[in-house]
Amino acid sequence: MTAKQLQCAIEAILFAAGEAVKISVMAKSLGVSKEMVREAVALLRYEYDTQERGLMIIDIDDGYQICSRPMYYQYIREILGEQRRQALSNAAMETLAIIAYKQPVTRGQIEHIRGVNSDGAINRLLERGLIDEAGRLDAPGRPVLYETTQVFLRCFGLKTVKDLPPIDLKRPEEYAKFEQLTITEQEA
């Protein structure tokens, strides 16, 4: 496979996928190294940028996704219609922040931090694809563990959860329970 064929294959894969595709998955399916995939994507990005094309490739969770440039949103909205999504409630944002920073985390741990029932917020986040089940805690009752998704990363413009900004603990006494919470087998 030539370098140009590799670029075209990656472009086709990213276009058809419609979501982020892991570098390792592309490398395996194309029969090339991860480094070759990274180089081909870098060349594609360069072409998209220098030719001022309407598409771009973004990094998401050790993978790539092809998407439209934000500057063309108004035209896309005009053709496809504005997709109105109701903003997340404060409860949902609080719950999402806890999951993002403490993942994987159980419903009980989330409720311990928030001090209130979080069923509704967790259900809304699941419906929107911002969080997903990450397995079960090996503890009595085997509670579900939650983690953020690639949709979360894309919505917040992050490559990985490691890119989350640090928490500013201006009032440590209020955040002590948040910082001390870790997943152990004793918690459930």
Describe the model.
This protein is an alpha+beta fold. The protein folds into 2 domains: 78 residues, Winged helix-like DNA-binding domain superfamily/Winged helix DNA-binding domain (Arc Repressor Mutant, subunit A, Orthogonal Bundle), CATH 1.10.10.10; 91 residues, Arc Repressor Mutant, subunit A (Orthogonal Bundle), CATH 1.10.10. It contains 9 helices and 6 strands, in the order H-E-H-H-E-E-H-H-E-H-H-E-E-H-H. The strands form 2 sheets. A 3-stranded antiparallel beta sheet has the order 1-3-2. Helix 1 packs across helix 3 and helix 2 packs across helix 3. The longest helix has 17 residues.
What's the layout of helices and strands?
Layout: H1 3-17, E1 21-22, H2 23-30, H3 34-50, E2 55-59, E3 63-68, H4 73-80, H5 90-102, E4 105-106, H6 107-114, H7 119-127, E5 131-136, E6 144-148, H8 150-155, H9 172-180
Antiparallel strand pairs: 1-3, 2-3, 4-6, 5-6
Helix pairs in contact: 1-3, 2-3, 5-7
- Using only C-alpha atoms, the radius of gyration works out to 20 Å
Compute the average pLDDT. 85
Quaternary organisation? single chain
User: Helix-strand pattern, N to C?
Assistant: HEHHEEHHEHHEEHH
CATH architecture of the largest domain: Orthogonal Bundle
Distance between the termini: 52 Å
